[in-house]
Amino acid sequence: MESVTILLAEDETLLLLDFEDVLKEAGFVVLAVTSGKKAVEYLKAAESSIAGIVTDIRFAESPSGWDVARFAREIDPEMPVVYISGDSAPDWASQGVPKSIMIEKPFVMSQLIVAISQLLNDRTAGAAALE
């Protein structure tokens, strides 16, 4: 099986470690960062190897998770994006990228795996339909 790399951006270290562990246990390769700025740097450096993004919305500094997702979609218009947030869910309709998923904190860890897997599967199914 081909490895699938997920970019994970979360500024709360304990949550970052929990999310990273769950994603790794599900078989993903995880690039974990603690800021939107680092996430954008990873996207620029490793754009072709990142299959999907899981991002918090609010970081101590700009850019926000909304901005990270928009930047990722400039690189890859079909990039799967899962937002995780404790307080920004109401803004998802106006700020989120199309075909993304919002998970509100707190949540059951399996929701994270289901969300990113669903988006990755939808992308694969769409690509297969085009062939």
TrEMBL record:
Any signal peptide, and if so, which residues?
Answer: none
NADP listed as a keyword? no
Query: Membrane-spanning residues where?
Result: none
A Gene Ontology biological process noted in the UniProt record is: phosphorelay signal transduction system
Gene3D superfamilies cross-referenced by the UniProt entry? 3.40.50.2300
InterPro entries noted in UniProt? Bact_response_regulator, CheY-like_superfamily, Sig_transdc_resp-reg_receiver
- Which PANTHER family is this protein grouped with? STRESS RESPONSE REGULATOR PROTEIN 1, TWO-COMPONENT RESPONSE REGULATOR
What is the recorded name of this protein?
A: Response regulator receiver protein
- To which species is this protein native? Sinorhizobium meliloti CCNWSX0020
